[in-house]
Write a structure and sequence with these properties.
By secondary structure, the chain is mostly helical. Helices cover 72% and strands 4% of the residues. Strands 1-2 form a two-stranded antiparallel ribbon. Helix 3 runs antiparallel to helix 4 and helix 4 runs antiparallel to helix 5. It is elongated and about 55 Å long.
């Protein structure tokens, strides 16, 4: 179990706030018609999928942000609820970013340690779409690194606790 769950909850909340601050203005300022320059069916499909995936990511991130905020405002910090919330951040937010349903972009692990962007797009997006994905990719990479315990160890620990009772 991570040593400082409260600190992890606080830092995760701040990172989610940063991602929300990137995603929300982009989604509020861009409609599908603005992104698709002509009647290109491939571009229509690409940008429609990208907008859909980013909206899901924004909603999951906002819900997790609010949940962590509520936990951190309580007079008595609830460790179990916080761990559950961090598990959900990993499985809903991090996984939604790195495994988008419409596969408009993907992570190429070969670039992860080269200093180059590890995100590869299915087709070349306009600059603002590219920038928002790359900007939030850094946030979700940090969350993935911070919360890797919650990828599998958390559920294993929970099952073992349930069996020992």
């Amino acid at each position: 179990m991570p040593a400082n769950v409260k600190g992890l909850a606080e830092s995760s909340r701040e990172k989610l706030k940063k991602a929300i601050g990137e995603l929300e203005p982009f989604l509020n300022g861009h409609a599908l018609q603005q992104l698709v320059q002509d009647d290109n069916a491939d571009a229509q499909s690409f940008y429609g999928g990208l907008l859909s995936d980013l909206r899901h990511l924004l909603v999951f991130s906002e819900v997790a942000y609010e949940k962590l905020g509520a936990l951190l405002r309580r007079p008595n910090f609830d460790l179990d609820l916080a761990e559950r919330a961090l598990y959900e951040v990993y499985h809903h937010c991090v996984n939604t970013f790195f495994y988008p349903k419409n596969e408009c972009y993907s992570e190429d692990g070969r670039y992860a340690y080269t200093g180059q962007d590890a995100i590869r797009f299915r087709m070349k997006p306009i600059r603002s779409a590219r920038d928002v994905v790359l900007n939030v990719s850094r946030v979700y990479e940090e969350l993935r690194d911070d919360l890797s315990f919650y990828e599998s160890d958390y559920l294993t620990q929970r099952r073992m606790q349930g069996q020992s009772k």
